[in-house]
Write a structure and sequence with these properties.
Elements (H helix, E strand, L loop, with lengths): L26 H13 L2 H15 L1 H4 L4 H5 L1 H16 L8 H20 L5 E6 L6 H4 L6 E7 L1 H17 L12 E6 L7 H7 L8 E5 L8 H14 L5 E8 L1 H4 L13 H7 L3 E7 L16 H6 L18 E8 L7
Length: 337
């Protein structure tokens, strides 16, 4: 296996074998994950799938809590995909895009905090799922973090983290790094999530960074646009930064896809609803590869040279599935031309 596009040197295989933490085999944690596997729908379960990817790429993402939040079943399933990719010498190992996406959000979040030139800021993670940034990013030490998601997702996450803290010595040092963390139980498909957020202590007039990672494309078009418009409204009150990822149309048209909302031109959509200074990157771009996307034959590298309007690859007829990483800002101090 080469090092091209895989994120690690050939002589240091990161996935020689799957080593699961003992905590996953305790009765308490097994019960929690059994409930997730039997009671949650695919959208909610995607939170554990994302955690599994971060756990197996933790040599890059630095997310030690991810394996507990992912659970045995999702870790084993994801590991098998990686193992097959390694055997087949794939130019793109499963999870590398998730690792790139995680690192992009991390670096842009820290840069946005620094740009505020203030000691405090609010971070809102919409559709937070099994995200652990409040526990692993030291740049959040002066920030109030709000995680918004379905009540059952937030409760299971809290229970799993509590189990890790109480039942396993190896997680004792995984303390919260954010100034504060508030979990807000809300359904983003309903219009009352901003009200619930504010009742939980969110201050609309305070500098805010909104993180929408892996969430917009699960929404219906009307719901996704409504969410973005609401954030744009907040930007008329205070300095605001939006960090979000968008799928293009081809990505949502795949068979059995659970994705709905797409935008081939998010850098045109966002200004039309009130955002300014919109910057778009594709996976593989200089600020969106992190040394993990070297192989020219990698799918995303091949697509970067094609116009975004192209939906089918001219070489083989496959759909041009793109992921756009977008940063936008808004401020009441910006005067419209």
């Amino acid at each position: 296996m080469t090092d091209q596009g895989n994120g690690h040197p050939a002589d240091q295989p990161m996935w020689a074998e799957l080593k699961l933490p003992e905590l996953l085999f305790t009765e308490r944690v097994r019960r929690l994950h059994a409930e997730i596997e039997t009671e949650w729908d695919p959208v909610r379960q995607s939170a554990c799938q994302t955690a599994a990817g971060r756990a197996l790429w933790k040599h890059v993402t630095k997310d030690p809590l991810a394996e507990v939040l992912a659970g045995e079943a999702y870790l084993r399933s994801f590991y098998e995909k990686i193992r097959k990719d390694c055997i087949n010498k794939a130019s793109e190992v499963s999870g590398v895009i998730l690792a790139v996406r995680t690192l992009w959000f991390d670096t842009k979040l820290e840069a946005a905090l620094n740009s505020f030139n203030t000691e405090e800021a609010q971070i809102v993670l919409l559709g937070a799922g099994m995200d652990t940034r409040a526990y692993r990013l030291t740049c959040l030490r002066n920030s109030n973090v709000f995680e918004v998601d379905f009540p059952e997702v937030l409760q299971k996450k809290a229970n799993l983290l509590q189990a890790a803290k109480e039942d396993a010595d190896e997680y004792q040092n995984q303390l919260m790094t954010a100034k504060s963390l508030t979990r807000v139980a809300a359904d983003l498909r309903e219009n009352n999530w901003p009200e619930k957020l504010q009742k939980s202590g969110f201050i609309p007039e305070k500098n805010t960074i909104w993180i929408l990672e892996g969430i917009l494309y699960y929404q219906l078009d009307s719901d996704a646009v409504s969410i973005l418009k609401k954030i744009a409204e907040y930007s008329t009150l205070t300095q605001t930064v939006l960090l979000a990822d968008f799928m293009n149309k081809s990505s949502t048209m795949l068979s059995s896809s659970i994705f709905h909302f797409y935008s081939d031109w998010p850098d045109q959509l966002l200004p039309s609803i009130g955002f300014s200074d919109v910057r778009l990157s594709q996976v593989g771009d200089p600020d969106a590869n992190f040394g993990l996307m070297h192989d020219p034959s990698n799918l995303f590298n091949k697509l970067r040279s094609l116009p975004r309007s192209v939906q089918t690859h001219p070489d083989d007829g496959t759909p041009c599935c793109r992921l756009y990483l977008v940063q936008a800002s808004g401020s009441p101090y910006i005067i419209a031309p």
